[in-house]
Design goal:
Layout (H helix, E strand, L loop, with lengths): L3 E6 L3 E3 L3 E5 L4 E5 L2 E6 L2 E3 L3 E5 L4 E5 L2 E3 L2 E4 L3 E5 L4 E5 L3 E3 L2 E5 L3 E5 L5 E11 L2 E4 L3 E5 L4 E10 L9 E5 L4 E10 L9 E6 L3 E4 L3 E4 L2 E4 L3 E6 L2 E4 L5 E4 L2 E5 L3 E6 L3 E11 L2 E2 L7 E6 L3 E11 L2 E2 L7 E6 L3 E11 L2 E2 L6 E6 L3 E13 L2 E2 L6 E6 L3 E11 L2 E2 L8 E6 L4 E11 L2 E4 L3 E6 L3 E10 L2 E4 L3 E5 L4 E8 L1
Parallel strand pairs: 1-5, 2-6, 3-7, 4-8, 5-9, 7-11, 8-12, 9-13, 10-14, 11-15, 12-16, 13-16, 14-17, 15-18, 16-19, 18-20, 19-21, 20-22, 21-23, 21-24, 22-26, 23-27, 24-28, 25-29, 26-30, 27-31, 28-31, 29-32, 30-33, 31-34, 32-35, 33-36, 34-37, 35-38, 36-39, 37-40, 38-41, 39-42, 40-43, 41-44, ...
């Protein structure tokens, strides 16, 4: 059908001010080249369209526009899809200035059951859409249902949770995401994207994902919670966080991974001028616990990322209670800063947490600054935690101000099962601090630190130009090769 629906107000309760469709076996609905303008109702589901699709029913909405549509859920469209139902929205559909009081400013979609499919792709735009949950889109997927989101733009969308998208995936629900851009989106949690993945739910990202000028309290670009679920990011192109900000934690990305949840990033991830104001993790803030695992395998770069009121200008990572963090490939922290510790990176590894860096090229901290300690890197390893770094790790022009400790890195190791192992080469070039121009090392309570090879060049401090150590009751401190 090709139509224009303009200024339709539905009073009282009900669903779909313009269209209400119940689609079952053999039913097909095509809406094409249509306009929906100011379709709304104060207590309805689906400001313009309400769809109930089941038993193999199908609906397609193509090349249509939704402007100033409003509802309780689904300002433009509300859809329930189950028992092999299918909904496709494609062909450059636009959602402009749409609102929902509760969820899905542009679209609300709820999917149940295996073989149910929601497809959102091919140049769709959401502009200035607003809702409490999912300014542009709210998606619930359970019981092996599937969602595909491809070639979609979210611009100036707002919400409390997920400025552009809020995505819930559980009970083996599957979401495939590619070629998505979030620009100038705002939310309390997840300025661009909020995702909650649980009970073997899965999200796969296969192509470009961009967060530009997005902001939130937690996770300026993306807020992710994984509890027995997984996110696999394997893009042909890069994942980009550019000028994203958080009031508290995770200027670009906030991730909480637990109960066997997995976050896997393969290929290239870039953070440019991301920052947090009162918390930690200017680029990334991640908490991994209870068997959760965070893996990066490829290239991860942080440029001019700042933590103005906490730790970890580029990356803040806490790994605890058998959580694991595995980092492979190449890592760069350039011109990153923090107000306290870890100008480039801050690691807190406790209670049998485990972090492994296995660099195939190098880990480079370049011109990073921390006011408290660890101009480039701070690592706190306690109560059975373990940190292992293999390959070349370089610190260039890193420093601490205001009586700081460890111009290049600050290392604290505490507890009989706690270990810090550098099995490659550490290089410090022109690093400075008050104590420990290159390294500030604090060890006690039967902990272990092993460093295979260290090179210091032009490093300076009032105490310990290369290394300042504060050691007591140590099980093992070993440095095999030291060059100054």
């Amino acid at each position: 059908m090709k139509s224009t629906f303009s200024i339709i107000n539905r009073s009282g309760t009900g669903n779909g001010a313009a269209i209400n469709a119940q689609l079952q076996s053999g039913n097909q609905l095509l809406i094409k080249d249509s306009e929906f303008i100011q379709c709304k109702g104060s207590e309805i589901q689906g400001g313009a369209i309400y769809l109930n699709i089941n038993n193999g029913g199908q609906a397609t909405i193509s090349n249509s526009s939704f402007s100033n549509c409003e509802a309780t859920h689904g300002g433009g469209i509300y859809a329930r899809i189950y028992t092999s139902g299918k909904l496709t929205i494609d062909g450059q559909c636009n959602f402009t200035d749409c609102k929902a009081e509760v969820s899905g400013g542009g679209i609300y979609n709820n999917m149940f059951d295996m073989n149910s499919l929601f497809s959102l792709e091919d140049g769709i735009k959401f502009e200035r859409c607003i809702s409490r949950n999912g300014g542009g889109v709210c998606i619930y997927m359970i019981n092996q249902s599937k969602g595909i989101i491809n070639k979609v733009l979210f611009n100036n969308c707002e919400s409390s949770y997920g400025g552009g998208i809020i995505l819930y995936t559980q009970s083996k629900g599957i979401a495939e995401i590619s070629n998505i851009s979030f620009i100038n989106c705002i939310s309390e949690e997840g300025g661009g994207l909020y995702s909650s993945i649980s009970s073997e739910g899965e999200v796969t990202i296969t192509d470009t994902l961009q967060f530009i000028n997005c902001e939130g309290n937690l996770g300026g670009g993306w807020y992710a919670v994984l509890n027995q679920g997984s996110i696999n990011i394997n893009p042909y192109q890069q994942i980009l966080f550019d000028n994203c900000t958080a009031e508290f934690f995770g200027g670009g990305f906030y991730a909480n991974i637990s109960e066997g949840g997995q976050l896997n990033i393969i290929n290239q991830c870039i953070f440019i001028e991301c920052q947090c104001y009162f918390g930690s993790g200017g680029g990334i803030y991640t908490l991994t616990s209870h068997g959760g695992q965070f893996t990066i395998n490829g290239s991860c770069e942080f440029y001019q990322c700042i933590s103005q009121g906490g730790h970890g200008g580029g990356l803040f990572a806490e790994t605890t209670e058998s959580g694991q963090m595995k980092l492979f490939g190449q890592f760069l922290f350039q011109n990153c800063e923090s107000a306290f510790y870890g100008g480039g990176c801050y690691l807190r590894i406790i209670d049998s947490g485990n972090v492994t860096f296995n660099s195939t090229n190098q880990i480079l901290f370049d011109n990073c600054l921390a006011l408290g300690g660890g101009g480039g890197l701070t690592a706190l390893v306690q109560y059975g935690g373990q940190l292992s770094i293999n390959g070349v790790t370089s610190f260039k022009n890193c420093k601490c101000n205001n009586n700081g400790q460890g111009g290049g890195c600050y290392l604290l190791c505490n507890g009989s099962e706690s270990k810090i192992l550098f099995t490659g080469q550490l290089q410090f070039d022109n690093c400075s601090s008050t104590q420990g121009g290159g390294i500030y090392l604090r060890m006690y309570d039967q902990s272990t630190v092993e460093i295979q090879k260290i090179l210091f060049k032009d490093c300076s401090a009032k105490s310990g130009g290369g290394i300042f150590s504060n050691v007591s009751n140590v099980l093992n401190l070993e440095m095999e090769e030291l060059y100054v």
